[in-house]
Fold:
Amino acid sequence: MQLYIKNMVCPRCITAVRAELEKAGINVLAVELGEAEIKNDLTPEELQHVDKSLQALGFELINDRKGRIIEQVKNEIVYLVHHSDETLNTNLSNWLADKLHYDYTYLSNLFSEVEGTTIEKYYISQRIEKVKELLVYDELSLAEIADALGYSSAAYLSGQFKKVTGLTPTFYKTIKENKRKKIDEL
Structure:
């Protein structure tokens, strides 16, 4: 049986979900971002119990097909931006369509309808959060950050950063309390 879980954005989320499922006595076969494969089917009461315990940790079971697809889009983008060294050799629309085996127009319309924003804006917001993280670490130059995240230049990255945050990357680095958003709140 496959469980689809909302708000899983990092390896710690995988560990927390696995632990919560095992605590509930469920035989877990695999856990990935947004999904858990379990050995046996669950009764409606067991599903409700699991959902309640996951909600206490900030997660949520997804029961509808559209919700699962949207969560897959988000998880693929989060993984690409925050957890992978992969750089896109194609545009985002082709990459997502290939990854999820859906027509991009369908994915885009569904995402916009449900989330109230575009996939592209979601992708940009994830990239900007990653830039903020790297700026705070202060280990890479802006040009190195741009290169690492697949921007064509530091100038393009700087322009997009200012458009999204209202600040230049250089000014952002000087702020003592850099307010980064949680990945699952984007």
Notes: Residues 2-61 form a domain with the Alpha-Beta Plaits fold (CATH 3.30.70). The mean pLDDT is 90. Residues 144 and 154 are 8 Å apart (CA to CA). The first helix runs from residue 11 to 23.
